[in-house]
Design a protein that fits this description.
- By secondary structure, the protein is α/β, with parallel strands linked by helices.
- It contains 15 helices and 13 strands.
- The protein has helices spanning 2-10, 47-57, 66-79, 90-100, 118-125, 144-150, 170-179, 231-240, 249-255, 273-284, 286-304, 339-348, 364-369, 378-386, 398-415, and strands spanning 83-87, 108-112, 129-133, 155-161, 184-187, 195-196, 199-200, 207-211, 224-228, 310-312, 319-320, 326-330, 387-390.
- The strands form 3 sheets. It has a 7-stranded mixed β-sheet, sandwiched between helices. Strands 7-6-11 form a 3-stranded antiparallel β-sheet, with no helix packed on it. A 3-stranded antiparallel β-sheet has the order 10-12-13.
- Helix 1 runs antiparallel to helix 15.
- The longest helix is centred in the last third of the chain and has 19 residues, at 286-304.
- The protein binds pyridoxal-5'-phosphate.
- Pyridoxal-5'-phosphate (PLP) is lined by residues 89-91, 115-116, 118-119, 161, 187, 189-190, 211, 213, 224.
Length: 417
């Protein structure tokens, strides 16, 4: 194994001042590959992003102003939808998606087990029941055959997740949804910029939710969006984010309307003009962000070919992956340590690798309060034991990528059987 690390370090991908193999792992008291930790994800904020925010602060409308609609329209163009409605977070966007479909107590919504808790929490917010569906081992995307097996008379929607930025199989999913007359909802919080068969995420489901948290493709600090091509759903989404009131403040201001009517129990889930201006500016940088993420993923994939005992997830032919995450899987039979020990050792080297995700129903709330039992989705559970996410974000340098590979090499030398 030492030989391979030396080869990697001597290889042309390493700059001339490349670090020598340290031998001892940082976790055992050796010198770490990096002196400061490389995060798994972070925002890229430019001077022009900052200027666009400052301009709003000098204007009249800090919220419910013109920047909201501008951001929404721009976003619709980017994702190929006819309507986009901005929300205060990706979670609020998912809640709104479930509300707009009328999910209520007694209704079941099918959702993959391997995702962020918000993917299923949004069903609970509406009183609905999440029905956890397993993922396929190769790509950790929802298992379409199992989706169909879980459909019954109580099923009211199918919610899928473009895990890591890898688009689900929308051809299959749309066929299932159409056949059973069910709405298809996409949690594309990882997927902005991804495509399936040349079609953009945002145009492939009845409702698609996005997040603008700082680790996602573009950021507004906190923020989210739902895209749809259904005008009725768009109207319900807009009312929901504004307390269930039928008109917005600026509209009443401009039309001289004196009163308003609240027709649903909505929330204040608005995204401010300050945030929308940042979102518009970030959105114009999305092509570069995607290019950089894909380039980093390509470098990882090329460099990891030389490693045994670990491999990236597979990518389906016909998709363009958005690479929110770069997930690798350890083969437990190849390593002398557990995934947790491996992750700890990697972090000690200054590589901020992370875990995405524990099966949702393993969380205490789902297990203890709602009574979900372990064993429900064996592929999700097995995957969780062996996966980890390597750092990937737009401002990550080639040297940063090399540091990750160097750290993996050190761990291989120490822990590969
Ligand atoms: C980030 C994320 C969310 C929630 O988005 P927030 O903007 O953080 O509320 C939901 N689902 C998935 C899969 C996510 O990664």
């Amino acid at each position: 194994m030492l030989q391979r690390t030396q080869r990697l370090i001597a290889g042309k991908q390493m700059p001339s001042q490349a670090r020598k193999p340290k031998g001892d792992l940082a976790i055992d008291g050796g010198t770490s590959v990096r002196s400061s930790t490389l995060p798994y994800g972070r925002q890229s904020v430019s001077e022009s992003d900052i200027a666009s925010v400052v301009a709003v602060l000098r204007g009249d409308w800090l919220t419910t102003g013109p920047h909201v609609g501008e951001f929404e329209d721009k976003f619709s163009t980017v994702v190929g939808a006819s309507h986009s409605v901005a929300f205060s977070s990706g979670t609020a966007a998912l809640h709104a998606a479930m509300f707009s479909l009328g999910i209520k107590p007694g209704d079941e919504v099918i959702v993959p087990a391997l995702s962020f808790a918000a993917s299923a929490n949004c069903i609970l917010y509406c009183g609905g029941t999440p029905v956890f569906c397993d993922v396929t081992p190769a790509d950790l995307l929802i298992d379409c055959d199992e989706v169909e097996r879980k459909i019954n008379s109580r099923t009211k929607a199918i919610l899928v997740v473009d895990y890591a930025g890898h688009p689900c199989n929308y051809q299959k999913l749309s066929a299932i949804a159409t056949k059973h007359k069910l709405p298809l909802v996409a949690d594309s919080c990882h997927g902005l910029g991804g495509t399936d068969q040349g079609k953009k995420l945002g145009s492939l489901a009845d409702l698609t939710a996005f997040s603008f948290h700082p680790v996602k493709h573009i950021t507004t600090g906190e923020g989210g969006m739902v895209s749809t091509s259904n005008p009725e759903l768009a109207k319900r989404l807009k009312q929901f984010r504004n307390h269930g009131i039928t008109t917005e403040f600026r509209e009443r201001h401009e039309k001289g309307l004196l009163s308003y009517d609240m027709i649903e129990l909505g929330f204040n889930y608005r995204l401010s003009d300050i945030q929308c201006a940042l979102g518009s500016s970030q959105l114009s940088r999305l092509p570069q962000f995607l290019e950089r993420r894909r380039h980093i993923a390509k470098q990882y994939s090329e460099k990891l070919v030389g490693f045994s005992g670990l491999a990236p997830l597979s990518v389906r032919v016909g998709v363009e992956h958005a690479f929110h995450l770069y997930v690798i899987r350890l083969d437990p039979s190849c390593w002398s340590v557990s995934r947790d020990q491996f992750l700890k050792a990697l972090r000690a080297e200054g590589i901020g690798a992370n875990l995405h995700y524990q099966p949702i129903y393993w969380h205490s709330y789902y297990e203890k309060k709602l009574g979900f039992k372990r064993g429900l989705c064996p592929n999700s559970e097995a995957a969780y034991e062996n996966i980890l996410s390597l750092p990937i974000f737009a401002d990550m340098s080639d040297q940063d990528v090399d540091d990750v590979v160097t750290a993996l090499g050190k761990l291989s030398d120490a822990y590969l059987l």
